[in-house]
Design goal:
Layout (H helix, E strand, L loop, with lengths): L1 E2 L31 H13 L4 H9 L3 H4 L14 E2 L5 H18 L22 E6 L2 E4 L9 E7 L14 E9 L5 E10 L2 E12 L3 E11 L4 E11 L2 E10 L4 E10 L7 E10 L2 E10 L2 E8 L2 E8 L6 E4 L7 H25 L3 H4 L4
Parallel strand pairs: 3-5
Antiparallel strand pairs: 1-2, 3-4, 5-6, 6-7, 7-8, 8-9, 9-10, 10-11, 11-12, 12-13, 13-14, 14-15, 15-16, 16-17
Helix pairs in contact: 1-5, 4-5
Length: 365
């Protein structure tokens, strides 16, 4: 199990909407592939989730639902958000199954076969309250400032070893949760603020459809200097689950995209189709292919030309080789492995963004 502090690499995942990558700014399909520059771009994306404020948010957000009288939508330990790292075919498939169950739970079918998302609301006794941490949990305090249709949770400096607030407590900011549910859509806004600067701002909505349901997350995250705009859409139907990610970093002129379609998740023959790409000043890279329970292969193209293959046998780590079957240079393998890891971490990011808003999104019984 890996401990996922959102401040670390989780949202490297956030990515993708189109099958074909379009160039950012002056970059295009003819820009030479620079593996060292590509790795640096991915590190810059990761850094947007690496601020101390975001670290406090990721460590403490699993406690919010309990304070609001609800059960968490995402299983988490008391002081750290944990998930198995999905970098193998079997791990990606297991993460897709979890994601499908999550969307289905948020957009349940009614007895007559139609789908309806009941508007959720924060319990009246907690509306407008500011919560303070004490002894391993949160409780309402006396401070003002929280939205009338939401709640505010104070954030504190975190011990990097225990992932608990340092003692004595050092306040570093707050998380504001606002209920935006309306009609058949359940929705909530999450804002993370420190020293009057907004480090994270996104909206989560859940909507049922005639054939399934959809959860949509959109917003941005920043470390104070670099900003990543994120857009995630997860849709479930009788056929399976589709996850779409886009992530854009304007400061580096970088765009990452990912489309994953999982079918037959309840059977051993189920498959996951992957279309992933990254475009920017260091080249245009795409990975396209399919995985099953036992493995699969992705074709890697650089500027439209076949460059390498990523092969998995199921439970083992993927093997990356050149288009001719020969080993690649170390810097090439490092860059391509970093891009490939976006696929496995996409579902982790999806879960992570849902952690603080379980009470707001859980359908009425």
């Amino acid at each position: 199990m890996r401990v996922l502090q959102l401040a670390k690499r989780s949202v490297t995942l956030l990515a993708a909407v189109s099958v074909a990558l379009t160039a950012c700014g002056d970059s295009g399909p003819d820009v030479p592939f620079n593996p060292t520059g590509t790795s640096a771009d991915i590190q810059a994306v990761n850094s947007t989730f690496d601020s101390p404020t975001f670290g406090s948010f990721s460590s403490l957000s699993p406690l919010f639902d309990a304070a609001l009288g609800g059960a968490p939508l995402v299983s988490a330990s008391a002081n750290a958000f944990t998930f198995s790292r999905a970098t193998t075919a079997a791990g990606i498939r297991a993460a897709a199954q979890r994601g499908a169950k999550r969307v289905a739970a948020l957009t349940p079918a009614m007895a007559n076969g139609a789908f309806s998302a009941s508007s959720a609301a924060i319990p009246a006794e907690f509306a407008g309250k500011t919560f303070e941490y004490s002894g391993g949990s949160y409780a309402p305090g006396t401070r003002s400032g929280a939205p009338a249709n939401g709640a505010r949770f104070l954030l504190y400096a975190i011990n990097p070893v225990t992932l608990l607030p340092v003692e004595p407590l050092v306040e570093v900011g707050y998380v504001q949760l606002t209920d935006l549910s309306d009609g058949s859509t359940q929705a909530a806004r999450v804002q993370v603020v420190s020293a009057e600067a907004v480090y994270l701002d996104y909206t989560v909505s859940a909507t049922a459809t005639a054939t399934g349901g959809q959860v949509h997350i959109t917003g941005f995250v920043t470390d104070g200097s670099t900003r990543a705009n994120i857009n995630l859409r997860s849709t479930i139907t009788a056929a399976g689950l589709t996850l779409l990610y886009t992530l854009q970093v304007p400061e580096r002129d970088v765009s990452i995209s990912l489309t994953m379609t999982a079918t037959g998740l309840e059977t051993q023959t189920g498959t996951i189709d992957i279309n992933l790409g990254m475009s920017g000043p260091n080249g245009s890279i795409s990975m396209i292919g399919q995985f099953s329970e036992t493995g699969g292969t992705l074709s890697v193209r650089v500027s439209g030309r076949l460059f390498a293959t990523v092969t998995s046998t199921g439970a083992g780590e993927p093997v990356i080789t050149g288009a001719d079957g020969e080993p690649l240079a170390d810097e090439d393998v490092e860059a391509l492995r970093s891009i490939f890891e976006i696929t496995g971490e996409a579902f982790i990011s999806f879960d992570a963004m849902l952690v603080p808003v379980g009470v707001f999104l859980a359908p009425a019984a």
